[in-house]
Design goal:
Low-confidence stretches: 20-32, 336-352
CATH superfamily of the largest domain: Efflux pump adaptor protein, beta barrel domain
Number of domains: 3
CATH architecture of the largest domain: Beta Barrel
Shape: rod-shaped
Largest sheet: 6 strands, antiparallel, barrel
Number of helices: 7
Order of helices and strands: HHEEEEHHHHEEEEEEEEH
CATH topology of the largest domain: Elongation Factor Tu (Ef-tu), domain 3
CATH class of the largest domain: Mainly Beta
Distance between the termini: 83 Å
Structural class: alpha+beta
Helix content: 40-55%
């Protein structure tokens, strides 16, 4: 009986050993290795920077933020002395008022009093001309009998001709007063008014440009000038490091290129907090191959062709800094979302 029990237990132990060996073989051979379930990349934090400056020249009146200050969109950063630009605006507004008055006068046409005065001028000149003509007629008769000199006759003729010319001019003035201004004059006045308004719009833009505002969230990295400095258009006043978006510039080798695609989740690890990864996602994969940069550390050889990728990161606590070396781990088992997060929150993927 004891022998049978020993034999039975021996068979059980053999079966257990065989099962363990089989499971070990499956675990070692059939189970996907860790490298196949996760892609590890190495790169550096990349933060965009922008230089802010005025559109016009002038003397800096005020610098409102310092290096290291955080700024938000619409925050006033600096101002120029605006007195010259304000004067130009005032002059443009006065010019508009003058041009508008000219146009209004032309559109209103001749007033009844102006037409009445033109008619009176015509009547007065016509009466004077009739009197001069009668005097000339008498002189022509009297000159025959030498009661009037030839010089007097010539003077009377000249007076009649002068009054006739004045009458023609007065009649033309009356006709113009009745008809009103020409269409060409009105068109010219309209064009002059439009030009004055365009000048005012330009001057207002220049006046607004004396105030420099932040366009995005960021941190002041460099304060370039001080109050009192004469600056030229587009010369840098501040350099702003933008806090959103923040991404990792990394490189993937050609054999691993087909294993990732935009939208895949990623974890970003830093040497500062290796146990507290940052959430991220693949946002951009370069379509062009390049040689591995020397500053990038990968297990591949330095002569391998790689593809640059951009992994966007949720910058928790704004603790990520430009150039910081990081490790990116991309799980290869999770399916990417239908809509790439980078496309909805970080803007165009090809933005440098």
């Amino acid at each position: 009986m004891g022998s049978a029990k020993r034999k039975f237990f021996g068979l059980v132990l053999v079966a257990i050993a065989a099962a363990a060996a089989g499971f070990g073989t499956y675990y070692a051979v059939l189970r996907p290795p860790a490298a196949a379930r996760q892609l590890t990349l190495y790169g550096n934090i990349d933060i965009r920077e922008t230089d802010l400056g005025f559109n016009d020249a002038g003397r800096v009146a005020e610098m409102r933020v310092e290096e290291g200050d955080r700024v938000k969109p619409g925050e006033l950063l600096a101002t120029l002395d605006a007195r010259r630009y304000q004067a130009a605006v005032d002059a443009a507004r006065a010019e508009i008022a003058a041009r508008q008055a000219v146009l209004d006068r032309l559109l209103a046409g001749s007033r009844p009093e102006e037409i009445a005065r033109a008619k009176a001028d015509v009547a007065a000149i016509a009466a004077t001309l009739a009197n001069a003509q009668s005097h000339l007629d008498r002189s022509e008769k009297l000159v025959v009998h030498r009661y009037v000199s030839e010089q007097q006759l010539d003077d009377d003729k000249d007076r009649v001709r002068l009054l006739q010319a004045q009458l023609d001019a007065a009649q033309q003035t009356l006709a113009l007063a009745v008809k009103g201004p020409r269409a060409e004059d009105i068109a010219e006045a309209r064009a002059n008014l439009a030009g004055a308004k365009a000048t005012l719009a330009l001057n207002l833009d220049q006046l607004r440009d004396t105030r420099l505002y932040a366009m995005e969230n960021g941190v002041v990295r460099v304060r370039v000038v001080e109050p009192g400095t004469i600056v030229q258009p587009q010369s840098p006043i501040y350099t702003i490091a933008l806090t959103d978006p923040v991404w990792v510039r990394a490189y993937v080798s050609e054999p691993d290129l087909g294993r990732i695609r935009p939208g895949m989740k990623a974890e970003v690890f830093t040497d500062t907090a290796p146990n507290a990864p940052y959430d991220g996602w693949v946002g951009f994969i370069s379509p062009v191959a390049e040689f591995t940069p020397k500053s990038v550390e990968t297990p591949d050889t330095r002569t391998s062709l790689v593809y640059r990728i951009r992994v966007y990161v949720h910058n928790r606590g704004d603790s990520l800094r430009q150039g910081m070396p990081v490790t990116v781990k991309i799980p290869l088992t999770a399916a990417p979302p239908r809509k790439t997060p980078a496309q909805s929150s970080a803007g165009p993927e090809n933005r440098k």
